[in-house]
Structures are given as C-alpha cells and as structure tokens.
Amino acid sequence: MIRKTVAMISLVIMMMSVSSFAEVSQYEIKDRFTPTGLYMLYGNNMVSETWPDRDGRTDQGWYVTWFQDRKILREVAYNPDGKYRYYAVPHKDGTCSILRMELPDAANMADEKRYSNLILYDWDENGLSNPRQIANNIKEIRVAFGGFATWNPNAREIGIFDSSGSKLFILQNAESMPIRLAFDQLGNIWVMTAVYGERYKDSRYYLRQIRNGTLLWEKKLDWAVSIFPDQQGGLYTTESLGTGSYKDVGITHLNADGKEDMRKTLTANKVVIGCTIRPDPQNGQIIVTGRAVANSRKIYRVYRMTLDTDWNIKSIDVRKLNYHNDYNLNVRMSLDGICFVHANGIDEQERGDIHPVLIPFDELEAAENPGIALR
C-alpha cells in the first residue's frame, strides 16, 4: 500500500514565473497537506513531515518524505494504529536521520511516561539502518537543524543531542519541554523553556546558552522570542511590538555572553510582517526574509532583505503570490542559500482541491515594497 501511494506522489518545483493561482495550480505537493515540519537541505532536496489530511486528522496516516529533484527519494510512513511514530532529524551537512518513538498502549495514553525507547536511525538508500537507543520515558521531543532535545517530565530533564545521537547536555530541573531550540556551526546550543500562567501575560520564559557541556548563561524573559544564531557565538531574537493588527518586529542581538548589544525595529505600511534571519559569516551578509500581507486588501507579498554586518540595508527584493488567499506565506531558505516560498492555500470554498506548493522565490513576480524598512 505504501509503495502504491508513493508511486502516485511527486513534488514539482516551479521553474517559471508565477503570480496567480491559475499559473501555479499544476505545481503541487500532491496528496500531502499541512506540513508540520519542512526542512530545506542542499539544492532541490527537502524533507517534510506531513499529515495527508488538511485538518491534521491522525487517523489518516503520517509521513516523513525526502524529495529530491521533483521526485520522492525515500519515505517513512507512520500508521496511527501502529506502534511507532517517526521524526526527521536534519543534519547541517544536508543528510537526515530518523527518530522513532514507541507509542504507548491505548490504556496508558494519559500516563506521563507517554513515550518510551527512543531510537535514532541513519536514513539512506538502504532505508533505516544503524539503530541506537537514545533515551527512555520521553514524552516529547524538539528537533532543530543539527540536533534535537528530549523531555522527561517525571525527572524534569531535558536531554540535548546532536543529529548523530551524541549526548551534549542534560538540563536538570527544567521548567518544561523546549519551545525553542537552535544549534550553530561553532557548537553553541540555545534552548528556551516556559512556565505558563493562567493568563498569557503571566507566563515566564527562560533562554539558556550551552557550549562544550557547560551552561554559559541564562536569561529570564517576560515573553517568548524566536531565535536565530549569528554563527559567531551570538544570537538574534525577534518579537512582535505594539498593538493592533499591524505590529512591528523587534530584533535584538545577544553577544556570546548573553548581553544585548544591538536593537532594531522592522516596520512596514499597514501589513502583517514576519521575519527570519540567516547570517552568512563568510561574506558578511545577513539575509532577512518573511511575508508582508494584508488579507482584507488582498496584499500577499514576500521579501528578501540583504544587510551588511552593521545592519545597513543593501537591497530589498519583494515578490507577490496570491495562492488561494493564503496569508501565511512562508519563505524558506536551503542550506546553500536558495529561497523558496511555501503556501498551503486557505480558500474555504475550494480547500478540498488545493494542494501545497513550494516555489523558488526568484521565479515569483516582482512587486512594490509595502513600506518595509529597518530602523
């Protein structure tokens, strides 16, 4: 059954200019909906964790799929009625491993020891190989490029591992499972945990940096932030600023000692703006990407901003894509710096006929800048 399903599925990367649904409808991720994870590797390689049902119905099955050059290279399928669930663990060298988590019996679903016997596999042309046990009594995991973290609520421990399964650190007396996790090329690790209050504003967050098995520093925050390593031992964080529908984005840089040494604000003209940050230490450039949308006015934009090391803007490239009024356009960058735009489409009247698309940023039609600025 799995082979038959796989044979019917293909990923086609758009290689022509597009700007409307009519032009992009044939370039789809067939029979795959609502990716819960999407990892861009080198070139035309990507790994997705995907429910085949748009609403995420677990009884419809689940997949980890590796696409290469518009075709399925390999795939692991999870049957909800079976015993195991699988997660992709992407490596910084463009390869990928698979974590297998053993599901509990139905009678024990409410038990804190929800998962047991976490196994890591190599994933290559021979399938899953070289199994090694990672941990027991794990309830949840968090994966990032370069490694993953495990959460044992009974022991209140977070185990941090590299993508090959080597244990890097055990964080004891942890507040919760990691809600953010990041690794850089120098061996630094950042992990964020949370203590949730009855109201959102009563919640507290803890950000920690670890290197060579040592906790370097920790900070208590009043809000959750997104984190992006600067690949030189420091970290960029982003957060929403202000009130109303059109919030600015605050960007803060923490140096290797966890001290704030830069703060910027990303703004736009009455659009919802988001951003991710990808520094390139080799050429000194910093790439900021994201969406800039206003659904009520049918403005659907994505952008790629190039900065120098002092955060001066060198260029801003804005493109447009209206894919079934999808205002959650997501710009993803491969390990070799190629930008793609991922869209699911949300038009309720047509959603049954909509398939996700993944489109090279440079193939989209250019658009006017909706006031994106950095100050």
Number of strands: 30
Approximately how much beta-strand content do the residues carry?
A: over 45%
Q: Mind describing the biggest β-sheet?
A: 6 strands, antiparallel
Poorly predicted ranges: 1-27
Overall mean pLDDT: 83
Cα gyration radius (Å): 21 Å
Shape: globular
Q: Which structural class fits the helix and strand makeup?
A: mainly beta
Helix % is under 10%
Count of helix runs: 2
The separation of the N and C termini measures 55 Å
Description:
With 375 residues, this protein is mostly beta strands. It is 3% helix and 51% strand. Strands 21, 22, 23, 24, 25 and 29 form a 6-stranded antiparallel beta sheet that branches. The protein has a 5-stranded antiparallel beta sheet with strand order 17-18-19-20-30, with no helix packed on it. A 4-stranded antiparallel beta sheet has the order 1-2-3-4. A hairpin with a 4-residue loop joins strand 10 and strand 11 (157-162). The longest helix has 6 residues, at 2-7. The model is unreliable at 1-27 (pLDDT under 50).
In short:
By secondary structure, the chain is mostly beta strands. It has helices spanning 2-7, 21-24, and strands at residues 33-40, 45-51, 62-68, 71-78, 84-90, 96-102, 116-124, 127-135, 140-144, 147-152, 157-162, 167-172, 180-183, 188-195, 204-211, 214-221, 226-229, 235-241, 248-254, 260-267, 272-273, 276-280, 285-294, 299-307, 313-320, 330-333, 339-343, 357-360, 365-366, 373-374. The strands form seven sheets. Strands 21, 22, 23, 24, 25 and 29 form a six-stranded antiparallel β-sheet that branches. Strands 17-18-19-20-30 form a five-stranded antiparallel β-sheet, with no helix packed on it. It has a four-stranded antiparallel β-sheet with strand order 1-2-3-4.
